[in-house]
Design a protein that fits this description.
This protein is α/β, with parallel strands linked by helices. The protein is built from 13 helices and 13 strands. It is elongated. The termini are close together.
Length: about 375
């Protein structure tokens, strides 16, 4: 007899970029009458708040992180990974989910391996154009690996690899074009939108502050600085905020140019709104190079302008001013990146989750 509910466990963390796509899949499943879910993540207040805000129970486990620089913390990481594995094993044994969806991040391998040992089917997702360490590990224990594009994942060890795109938050998908007015923006005035990811970007923030007068001469500047990074700068054609929430779709729709990192979720949102962008990817000095890879793919497709490596203020200001003055170039970037939009990603992944969850119930006779 089939159990009355299909229970899904979500896992992900390290940044909110590993949480929001999982919540998008949750939203796509939420209308199912027989659906229940919970979330396993790391002990982080911001990630916990985002998950609980979406109506999911959040269960924290210890997590270890491989840092790409010398640190004594790397010596303790294996102990946290082992502790996280046993905590995840206990949670999964007690809650008996029908399927695990892993969005990735350093917290997830212990959860994925625990699910595999308990014969819980695993679906993993990679948002970037190349697989990170967590995804490489997780794919070995996954029935399905979901990827943003088809190219570059043929070598992965999952039983199936499915190009699903990257899930986008429901509030962005539900936005009605033209439904929000930006009161600070005069009619016909150009808008320069600056995004540094959920945590902000010190590099981008410094470039903006060093060139603000010149930038504001070309456009109104709306700047997401990141938590704790606001400077209190006052300028008649400048707004700085820690984080953009409700206004994000209207800003992306209206922006004449977006300056941002090249994280996978940011790129998916740019594509959804066909927003022309100047990308400044996080360098290999402080990451595995996933943003550099993402940016190269967009540059090759003519979908964005990219600045690699160290950038001085003069170069930054020149690139921004040149793009703001070149309507044709921005239009070409809009057209190219718009072709990459994948509105149905969360729904497609939700279908795969349903299939795996129901299959396990039938096979187990529950």
């Amino acid at each position: 007899m089939v159990r009355w509910a299909m229970v899904v466990c979500f896992t992900g963390g390290g940044t909110l970029g590993h949480v929001y796509p999982a919540l998008a899949v949750h939203e796509a499943l939420r209308g199912d009458e027989r659906y229940e879910a919970f979330f396993i993540g790391r002990n982080d207040a911001g990630e916990k708040a985002a998950v609980e805000g979406a109506g999911l129970a959040f269960l924290a486990i210890p997590s270890g992180k491989l840092r790409r620089y010398r640190s004594l913390k790397n010596l303790a990481s294996p102990l946290f990974v082992i502790a996280g594995f046993f905590k995840a094993l206990a949670i999964l044994t007690a809650r008996r989910p029908d399927v695990l969806f892993s969005k990735g991040g350093f917290v997830t391998p212990p959860v994925v391996i625990a699910a595999w040992l308990l014969r819980i089917p695993v679906i993993s997702h990679e948002s970037d154009t190349t697989a990170g360490l967590a995804t490489t590990i997780n794919s070995r224990f996954s029935q399905i690996l979901c990827t943003p594009i088809e190219e570059g994942f043929q070598h992965m060890r999952a039983k199936r690899v499915v190009a699903t795109g990257s899930p986008i938050r429901c509030d962005l998908l539900a936005y009605e074009p033209g439904s929000v007015t930006l009161p600070f923006l005069a009619e016909g005035e150009k808008l320069l939108l600056i995004l540094g990811g959920s945590g902000g970007s010190g590099q981008i923030n410094d470039l903006v502050h060093d060139t603000l007068d010149a930038l504001a001469a070309d456009a109104y500047v709306y700047h997401q600085c990141g938590p704790g990074k606001m400077t209190g700068t006052v300028h008649p054609r400048y707004t700085e905020v820690e984080f953009i929430s409700d206004l994000l779709p209207a800003l992306l729709e209206r922006a004449d140019l977006v300056v941002c990192r090249a994280g996978a979720n940011t790129i998916a949102e740019l594509a959804l709104f066909a927003a022309p962008a100047l990308l400044i990817p996080l360098s290999t000095a402080s990451s595995r190079g996933d943003q550099v890879d993402n940016a190269k793919v967009l540059a090759q497709r003519g979908a964005a302008r990219v600045l690699f490596g160290e950038i001085d203020s003069e170069t930054f200001q020149h690139e921004v001013s040149t793009l703001l003055a070149d309507d044709g170039a921005r239009r070409a970037y809009r057209d190219a990146i718009g072709t990459l939009a994948q509105r149905a990603s969360a729904s497609l992944i939700a279908t795969l989750v349903r299939e795996q969850g129901m299959r396990r119930q039938v096979c187990s006779g529950e």
